[in-house]
Amino acid sequence: MKQHTVIDSPYGLLTLVATDGVLSGLYMTDQRHRPPEETFGDPDDTPFGEASEQLGAYFAGELKEFTLDLHFAGTPFQRTVWEELRRIPYGETRTYGELAATLGNPKASRAVGLANGRNPIGIIVPCHRVVGADGGLTGYGGGLPRKRRLLDFERDAALF
Fold this sequence. Notes:
Layout: E1 2-7, E2 14-19, E3 22-28, E4 42-43, H1 49-59, H2 76-85, E5 94-95, H3 96-102, H4 109-117, E6 130-131, H5 144-158
Helix pairs in contact: 3-4
């Protein structure tokens, strides 16, 4: 059973989706690869108390690592990439190539990029922390301006 709610954030409205009571989606307005609204289930705030609380603490600069149970719907490779994204420390970045090497296949940077782009739980699974080989910003489902803002926010907050 799916349920969803919409919360406000410094980065615009966020749609949270739960599958059987476990967070399975966090989508930004106008996000690339955003599923159709009708797949989000019924509106219901009930399963999102902890996620909303942790997101609020993150946006306040008080939370550096999310401790939420997550439900990933994707291929085994995608789920592996998404789990690895969760290991990138707050305020740091990794390149697609570095992630591919960490996963044991240094030549899989393009596949890592494709999986990264399909991340269904943005911000909490920090795909915004992945950059191009030269350290420059590359694609982001929520748009490059949001990616830059998130990275700047984390770098600034990490200093304190």
